[in-house]
Amino acid sequence: MSEFSTDCAPVTVIKIGGSILRNARAYGRVADFFRNCHLASPHERLVVVVSAQEGATDALERVAKKIVHNANRAALDLLWSTGELRSVAFLTLHLQALGIRAAGLNIHEAGLTPPENDSSADPGNIRLDAKRLRGVLANHRVVVVPGFFSSNSAHTVVSLGRGGSDLTAVLLASGLNASRCELIKDVPGYFTRDPHRDASTLPVPSLTFEQALQLADDGCDLVQRKAIEAAARCNLPLIIRSLDENAPFTRVAEAETETRWSDSVASIAAAP
Questions:
Q1: Number of neighbouring beta carbons within 10 Å of residue 122
Q2: Buried-most residue among 30, 64, 175, 243 (CB within 10 A)?
Q3: Cβ contact 165:47 at 8 Å
Q4: Strands 180-184 and 127-128: what pairing?
Q5: CATH class of the domain defined by 11-270
Q6: pLDDT of residue 115
Q7: pTM to 2 decimal places
Q8: CB distance 125 to 118 below 8 Å
Q9: pLDDT digit string, tens, across residues 8-23
């Protein structure tokens, strides 16, 4: 029998954006954050979705264009994927260095699969084969997976569009029936204006899916639109936050509906 079981242990999906992973030292900071998560909830299993280090995707695209201006999409996706896989390996190593039983998976092992010949990455069509992921979760406290990509039936790597790591986290949380889904950004949630430009801006504690989609349509790309659509489709509440435990955050959910969150998280989200 496995040491751990996901049948009774709650699973949390947390996405770490590339803007958090600014340099090599950032991976150590993120690992410390997850050590604190583990100490606070030792029975919880964590699925951590990581993006490539900040700027890595653009840098890889520039390299590709120096080789061939109109790069083949499949080759470009394959090249881009090296950034996410590097993040998976680095964070897994940092977690292991802290004594945490962690494992890193590649894109194929993560289990997200779009329909054959579907290049749109429509979140309504992507499916999760969770067998491999659940098996690894049964023996590890933390499992790190790459965001931004799925793998089709031909085992070809398929990107999910800019900001696709948000969509990865939502699809995994829904497929695993996770107790919560958090998207960690370099700002603590939504604000009335861009906090990088206006220090007097105010945090927005809660939004409906419809409001978040409207913000996306108005040019606010804090969360990928496809990810919001997918969360709304399966009624999966999202927490948008930073690594700072004491900072404000934003909860995005359906208005006036029952929450799927655990009691402790729901009470925090409802706090004024």
A1: 14
A2: 30
A3: no
A4: unpaired
A5: alpha beta
A6: 65
A7: 0.88
A8: yes
A9: 689 999 999 999 999 9
DSSP for the chain, written as a single string: --S--TTTS-EEEEEE-TTT--SHHHHHHHHHHHHHHHHH-TT-EEEEEEPPPTTHHHHHHHHHHHH-SS--HHHHHHHHHHHHHHHHHHHHHHHHHTT--EEE--HHHH-EEPPTT--S--TTT-EE--HHHHHHHTT-SEEEEESSEEE-TT--EEE--TTHHHHHHHHHHHHTT-SEEEEE-SSSS-BSS-TTT-TT--B--EEEHHHHHHHHHTT--SS-HHHHHHHHHTT--EEEE-S-TTS--EEEE-TT----S-HHHHHHHH--
Any idea where the domains of the chain sit in the sequence?
Answer: 11-270
